[in-house]
Design a protein that fits this description.
The protein is an all-beta fold. It has no helices and five strands.
């Protein structure tokens, strides 16, 4: 009998392969933070977390976690926003994430 209730957890190196913010300066890092996935628009997801000034816009959120309402524990790098940009969240690169 299969177990359909398995929780997602990233494996080392998996998230680094999809880093689309390599050209941006890292402003700070976040480690072991609890948060929740939410829908930014019809194609993008973000992460909200307690104490966060801005919602995060991860460019490498795994497909298995692209569903609003999923609770996660995550780590990663907060990236700079360019002066000419207007974004729905702070650019963010996940280094680790697991479903709670």
């Amino acid at each position: 009998m299969g177990n359909n209730d398995q929780k997602y957890s990233s494996v080392e190196g998996e998230l680094n392969e999809n880093d689309c913010f390599t050209d941006r300066k890292t402003e700070t890092t976040i480690a072991g933070q609890e948060g929740e996935i939410f829908l930014i628009d019809n194609a993008n997801f973000g992460i909200r977390y307690e104490g966060g000034v801005r919602q995060l816009f991860p460019c490498n959120l795994p497909g298995a976690l692209q569903k609003a309402g999923i609770k996660v524990v995550f780590s990663g790098a907060v990236k700079a926003i360019k002066l000419e940009e207007l974004m729905a969240g702070q650019p963010f690169v996940l280094t680790k994430i697991r479903e709670m």
